[in-house]
DNA sequence: GAGCTAAATGTAAACGTTGACATTGGTTGT
DNA sequence: ACAACCAATGTCAACGTTTACATTTAGCTC
């Protein structure tokens, strides 16, 4: 049997194009042509012979060999800050799906919001020579700046590339979203407002804060009267800040959270202190995690179309000269009003 | 400047080990030795020269070249059925973390529980020549059987390898878990029991069902009186079955769900019909998603240590002869009793 | 100082694939 | 009959890295 033979000769390694060529008495070039669908210049019965030989040997082309020859892999690297965050998971899944359609594979790495880890992962990514590198929630690190000058396509999601770097961006209009939340809270007559936002280093957090405070100011309220807290984007952090805020002499009556996770934590803190929502405290989240529909049907939040991010990124990657293009895809958001405001 | 020179010569491609060798006037062998930490047989000042040249050129070794030479990549492929499921996300994240420590990268693919898609992805995975292939919730497909005979390490999570295949397995004792849930419900005096389980094709679902019914029978109840429903493991499916069950003339008074997602759906259906939990209906989930602590603090469920799966899988991958070894890692589960029972 | 050893470095082949170019043999046009 | 062409297939180099083996050099010993 051919299979045994090849296995033997290759010392346990998978069969190569040479094995297939020998098995069907043709050259490697012809085998390659057939297997890559260049059937135009191959006789039909020859093609058939190749296909049968490949099948009987259980041949699968080596992506390594192909990549080396073409000096290009079919891999895209995605860096996320936290996969347990629903939003990240949705983006990751939608990107993987979109890439699958184009025959690309996705390497997923978790930066855990740690700059050093991001740099380590960027180095690993670089050595993979991927088709592109996608950063969800990028941090401004030395290696990022260094690598951004490369020809390799970089795409930023949710947080814009740090200033000197020019690269495509996919996200929403965070400033407008911040304004929308402020407008909503003001319209409902809420005062005593607090905002628990993400790291100021991130363009997304900054823009939301800016939009939010801007709208507040327009309404004639002193933005300085708004309690501003910089926080990690986790339930635990939200819960901690919630307890602290609610134990103040004059606790806030409305809180705008950097994401839904924080909002969950705040909600828990409010419940524990017997503060009613929205009567005693209004809460607004951000992202509208898919699970909200089932488990947090009370949460007013900004719906971000996470599953649309993947296709948008994939199509940017397929464009020519993606690297140099400073294109932007701004996706629509939507204020989802529920009972927490 | 060296950088410009190399860039020019390579026509925009990243610098290679040859560029570095030329830049420091040494051979590629020496460069390779230094960069791979074989410092033992290289003079210290020579090593320094190499390192500086590499740095000034911005050299990053190509994983492709290395892989080709060593006919082995540093990639592990993980196939999951649904990344929006918290449990899958936790496993994926913990595996990625564990692999990172060993310098491995993780390619993540979504099978969406579709057999054809799993087979397509398995073919892609094979061509990547990964260090190992990890299947979370594997389906029994032709290609899986074919590939399992390969020397390449396969590891099964949560669902055992389909019978003829021998491969390492990481999971919990599903039968015991099923028994534990039954014991708990019986102890609380619940009758009129239903079970909404995952696909019967999967060993995990089957074992749970078996353990559950076994324990019921031991209690003197006819297992045939238990309503059994095979279902997809999603909130939507749970909600649908919940509505149907609760609209029956004699609705069940206790439901054991295949995972927490289904339980969320059931809960919603119960709320909508005004059925109290656990008074009118007891609900038990499975997995204990991390978000439960915050958003579903009412759900009695089996806690599966998702974040321990990654390290367990990683250590199996690092063992020698992983492929042939039929090892098993059975992780502990825990019945988390909350107010839904 | 010849002979030996060990340290430091160099040489070259191999990994699997593809595609530019070369070759073969047959067919058409004049 | 000869050139020109076309279709089908083959040859071979290149992609970037690592490593077995070869070579050089310096430091010893007797």
- Helix amount of chain A: 40-55%
Q: Could you tell me how far the N terminus lies from the C terminus of chain A, measured between alpha carbons in angstroms?
A: 72 Å
Shape of chain A: elongated
Structural class of chain A: alpha/beta
Tally of separate helices of chain A = 14
Rg of chain A from C-alpha positions? 26 Å
Number of strands of chain A: 12
CATH architecture grouping of the largest domain in chain A: 3-Layer(aba) Sandwich
Largest sheet of chain A: 6 strands, parallel
CATH superfamily of the largest domain in chain A: Response regulator
Topology (SSEs and partners):
The structure is a homodimer of 341-residue chains.
Chain A: H1 2-9, H2 17-24, H3 28-35, H4 44-57, H5 63-70, E1 75-80, H6 86-101, E2 105-110, H7 115-128, E3 132-136, H8 142-148, E4 154-157, E5 169-172, H9 174-187, E6 193-197, H10 203-218, E7 227-230, H11 235-246, E8 254-257, H12 260-272, E9 282-287, H13 292-295, E10 300-303, H14 306-318, E11 328-331, E12 334-336
Parallel strand pairs in A: 1-2, 1-3, 3-4, 4-5, 5-11, 6-7, 6-8, 8-9, 9-10
Antiparallel strand pairs in A: 10-12
Helix pairs in contact in A: 2-3, 2-4, 6-14, 7-8, 9-10, 11-12
The first copy, chain A, binds a DNA duplex (30 and 30 nucleotides) through helix 3 and helix 5.
């Amino acid at each position: 049997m051919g299979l045994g033979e090849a296995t033997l000769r290759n010392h346990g390694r998978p069969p190569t194009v040479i094995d297939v060529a020998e098995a069907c008495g043709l050259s490697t070039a012809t085998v390659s042509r057939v297997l890559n669908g260049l059937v135009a210049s191959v006789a039909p019965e020859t093609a058939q012979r190749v296909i049968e030989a490949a099948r009987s040997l259980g041949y699968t082309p080596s992506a390594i060999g192909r990549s080396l020859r073409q000096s290009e892999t079919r891999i895209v690297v995605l860096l996320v800050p936290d996969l347990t965050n629903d939003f990240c998971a949705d983006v990751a899944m939608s990107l993987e799906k979109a890439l699958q359609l184009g025959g690309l594979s996705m390497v997923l790495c978790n930066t855990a919001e740690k700059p050093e880890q991001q740099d380590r992962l960027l180095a690993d990514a670089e050595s993979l020579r991927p088709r592109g590198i996608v950063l969800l929630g990028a941090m401004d690190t030395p290696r990022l700046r260094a690598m951004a000058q490369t020809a390799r396509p970089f795409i930023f999601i949710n947080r814009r590339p740090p200033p000197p770097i020019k690269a495509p961006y996919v996200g929403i209009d965070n400033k407008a979203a911040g304004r929308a939340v402020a407008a909503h809270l003001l319209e409902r007559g809420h005062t005593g407002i607090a905002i628990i936002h993400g790291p100021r280093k991130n363009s997304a957090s900054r823009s939301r804060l800016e939009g939010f405070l801007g709208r507040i100011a327009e309404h004639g309220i002193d933005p300085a009267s708004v309690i501003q807290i910089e926080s990690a984007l986790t339930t635990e952090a939200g819960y901690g800040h919630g307890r602290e805020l609610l134990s103040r002499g004059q606790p806030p009556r409305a809180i705008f959270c950097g994401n839904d996770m924080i909002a969950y934590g705040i909600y828990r803190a409010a419940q524990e202190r017997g503060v009613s929502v929205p009567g005693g405290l209004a809460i607004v989240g951000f992202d509208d995690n898919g699970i909200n529909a089932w488990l947090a049907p009370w949460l007013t939040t900004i719906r971000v179309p996470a599953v649309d991010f993947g296709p948008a990124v994939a199509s940017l990657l397929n464009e020519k000269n993606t690297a140099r293009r400073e294109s932007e895809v701004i996706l629509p958001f939507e204020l989802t009003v529920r009972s927490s405001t």
